[in-house]
Amino acid sequence: MESFFKSINEMQQAMTNGQISAKDIVMTYLDRISQYDQSRIHINSILEINPDALHMAEALDIERKQQDIRSPLHGIPIIVKDNIDTGDKMHTSAGSAALKDHYASMDAFVVKQLRQAGAIILGKANLTEWANFMTEGMPNGYSSRGGQVLNPYGPGQLDVGGSSSGSAAAVASQFAAGGIGTETSGSILSPASSNAVVGVKPTVGLISRAGIIPIAHSQDTAGPITRTVYDAALLLEILTGMDVNDPATKMTPGKSSRNYTSSLHSNALEAARIGIDRSYLEGLDAEENKVIDNAMQDILKQGGEIIEVHIREKARDSSVLFHEFKNGLNAYLADCSPHLPVHSLQELIEFNHTHADIMLKYGQTLLMASEEKSGHLTEEEYIRDRLDDIKYSQAEGIDRVVNEHKLDALLFANNLGAGIAAMAGYPSITVPAGFTESKGQPVGLTLTSTAFQESKLLALAYAYEQSRSSTIHPPRLSAFVE
Question: Distance between terminal CA atoms of the chain?
Fold first, then answer.
């Protein structure tokens, strides 16, 4: 029974009809993980399995019979990135061996939302260590605790993307029905587009940041990674909500605006105005450009309009992440159990030096650069850069071009436009667009808009997904074994 090929909706319907159970689904995923994640191909996307997953599945099966279902996620296995706290028998390490013995004291808000909805936390996903804010030149998907995540479409040959590499590779490999990643700048969009899955980077504040090991409070957000746009909308509905422990969630619109699945319809691209700044495509090769050109043709065939635009860029690099990382990480580590070896960024750097053979395969340049900041967020450099980031990414960036051209969304390839949306705190969604001919490299079509426009972006992505001319096939893991 290949239930892992089904969407979340199809799984839920099969359970409702009594064809399968949540226990069956969990066992099917565990079997597939045993075959391809830690043996044979060694995708290496899963850091650990929840020891209570099967017990939870059985309990939810009983609950279904006795009380009906909690939500469309009832009994659905979800994988969670390992920088998100789970207050259970699983660790939370951000991929660092320095935190290999760290157990969070309670669930992150997003994990609470999933559990309350009846989802099963199947396990924790590997990631690029410290969400790719450790050093320059470290490969996407590498961590000292978990090793190297591989792209199931070309293990060892194609870039897996970062930093939510394990979440995306696991979903693409059909090790879970969906995954939760986190993004500061590209960390959902990059691995989702690299692994031919759907990734949503929400508006900062739509989903609580509480219980997530931080990089930058001004840009961090969790988000869903799934195989279909509908599943992404479904997960996003569950993840959102007001959290007293995160003041950013008080910015969010009313509950009615979060019924994302109801906004999905196949004709959403009709008369849609999609802007593209072609300078953002300069990093693509000819084959990748061909995939994006084909995607734009699909949009035009559905009645959409492609408008050439120019997005103004900030002239210099920002120091914001370096200042905010030290501030946020010190606060997180200070609350960790006394038995752990690190409770500050400085202690982490020292620990890495002491255990360099394990910890410093690629160095720690970003950690050291952040440690040079005060962590108090009082420096003129930080305040000026933060205000500039807001100005150039919002009013003079995305807001200006969207309003000036009356756009529904901006179009990018993969994560090439992630930086400006990240600084603005604005939403993006990436959906598979196709593959290059020579290498079979997945290419993602990414749509971005202004704050809290998730419903519109999901609708546009859904319409594109339904009308897409390219065939998106699951990775043939068995072919690599043979």
Answer: 21
Q: Which domains does the chain have, with CATH numbers?
A: 3-263 (3.90.1300.10)
Kindly report whether the peptide bond that precedes residue 470 is cis, defined as omega within 30 degrees of 0.
Answer: no
Q: Which letter, b or e, does each residue of 160-188 get, where b requires 16 or more Cβ atoms within 10 Å of its Cβ?
A: bbbbbbbbbbbbbbbbbbbbbbbbbbbbb
Tens digits of residue pLDDT in 10-42 = 999 999 999 999 999 999 999 999 999 999 999
Is residue 273 classed exposed, middle or buried when 0-12, 13-18 and 19+ CB atoms within 10 A define those classes?
Answer: middle
For the question of whether the overall pTM of this predicted structure is more than 0.85, the answer is: yes
* R_g (Cα) of the chain, nearest Å: 21
Dihedrals φ, ψ of 274, to 5°?
-115, 120
The one-letter code for the residue type at 103 is: Y
CA distances from 101 to 166, 318, 337 (A): 20, 34, 10
Q: What is the 3-state secondary structure (H, E, C) of 273-321?
A: EEEECHHHHCCCCHHHHHHHHHHHHHHHHCCCEEEECCCCCCCCCCCHH
- Residues carrying an active site annotation: 81, 163, 187
